[in-house]
Design goal:
This is TetR/AcrR family transcriptional regulator. With 41 residues, the chain is mainly alpha-helical.
Length: 41
């Protein structure tokens, strides 16, 4: 599994539920249980 898949697979339901414009990197990182730095990297 690529790093993109490890991030997008669990985050996709959030994007579908709340919309891309409403989601922040803080929300995404918190849902993934990781830091924003890790998501950006």
């Amino acid at each position: 599994m690529t790093s993109h898949q490890r991030i997008l697979t669990p985050a996709l339901p959030l994007f579908l539920r709340y919309g891309v414009q409403s989601m922040t990197m803080d929300d995404t990182a918190a849902h993934l249980g990781t830091s924003k730095k890790t998501v950006y990297k």
